[in-house]
Amino acid sequence: MTTKGEQFAGLTVALVTPFRDGAVDEAALRKLVDFQIEQGADCVSPVGTTGESPTLSHEEHEQVISTVCDHAAGRIKVMAGTGSNSTAEAIRLTRFAKNAGADAALLVAPYYNKPTQEGFFLHYQAIAEAVDIPLVVYNIPGRTAKNIEAETIVRLAEIPNIVAVKESTGSMDQASQIIAESNLTVLSGDDSLTLPLMALGGRGVVSVVGNIVPQDVKAMLTAFEKGDLPAARAQHYKLFSLCRELLSMATNPIPIKAAMKILGRDNGELRLPMTPLDAAQEQALAETLRTYGLL
C-alpha cells in the first residue's frame, strides 16, 4: 500500500509561541524557525497546543502562521495548526494557512463539544472539501475529551487530501489498526512513544522536546530509518528521561518554555491560565537539563 503524506515523515517540531509583555514576539518567533532549520528539523508546526493556541486571538493565530510561513520561505516545511471545535472556524483558519503558504494544516479533534464518530468524520470531510491543502488529523483525547476511533480515522483516510495523523492516544493498539488498515502517514504525538510507534510503521514525530534538542530527536529517527536499532534505542533512552521529567512537571507547554528560558532561548512568558513553574520545580528542571548535558 502506497502511503500518503510521506513528505511529512521525519521530525516536525511543535513550536512554542514566544510572548513579550503580553504580545506575540515576532522577532523571537523568527529566531525559533532559524534554529530549527540550522538543527535539521524537517518541518515546524506553529500554533498547536504547544503554541498556546487556545489563548491566542484569531488575529494573533493568523499573525503567527503568516510570520512562520514568511520566515520559513521554503527552507523548511510548515504544518500550521488550524483546528477548532467550530467547523466553520477551522475552515477559515485552514484557508488562511493555505493562502499564507503553509505546506499542511494540523487539525486537532473538536474539543469540549465531544462529537459522535459521524460528527468527527463530517467535520474533517467538510474542511477537506473546502480547502485543497494536505491535512493532518490530530487525535489527542486527553486534551479533547473524546477519541477519534481507529475505524473513523481509517474512513477519513479515503479522503484524498487527508494525508496523515498525529497519534496522541498513547494506544499502540489504535496506532497498529490505523497503520494496518489505512495509507496514512502516522506521526507520534508523544515524544516518549516515538520509537515504539516507528517499530509499528510510524514515520516520525510532532515533537515538543524538539524545541530544545531537535538534533537528538532527528538522530533517533535517522538511526531507525537506517536500520540501526541499537543506536535508535540508545537515543530513545537518552531522550526518555528528559521527556518524562518535562511532561511530568506540569501541563505542556509550561515545562518546555521553562526549559527554553533556562537555556536562554525564550523568556518563559506564558499566558493565563498557563502559569510558570515554581522555584523548586525550575531548579529541578535545571538539574535535569544539566544531567542531560545541556547546561
TrEMBL record:
Pfam families: DHDPS (PF00701). CDD domains: DHDPS. One of its GO terms (cellular component) is cytosol. Pathway: Amino-acid biosynthesis; L-lysine biosynthesis via DAP pathway; (S)-tetrahydrodipicolinate from L-aspartate: step 3/4. Gene3D superfamilies: Aldolase class I. GO terms for molecular function: 4-hydroxy-tetrahydrodipicolinate synthase activity. The active site is at 138 (proton donor/acceptor), 166 (schiff-base intermediate with substrate). The keyword Transferase does not apply. It is found in: Cytoplasm. Pyruvate binds at residues 50, 206. It catalyses: L-aspartate 4-semialdehyde + pyruvate = (2S,4S)-4-hydroxy-2,3,4,5-tetrahydrodipicolinate + H2O + H(+). GO terms for biological process: diaminopimelate biosynthetic process; lysine biosynthetic process via diaminopimelate. Keywords: Amino-acid biosynthesis, Cytoplasm, Diaminopimelate biosynthesis, Lyase, Lysine biosynthesis, Schiff base. The record marks 49, 112 as: Part of a proton relay during catalysis. Belongs to the DapA family. Catalyzes the condensation of (S)-aspartate-beta-semialdehyde [(S)-ASA] and pyruvate to 4-hydroxy-tetrahydrodipicolinate (HTPA). This is 4-hydroxy-tetrahydrodipicolinate synthase. It comes from Symmachiella dynata.
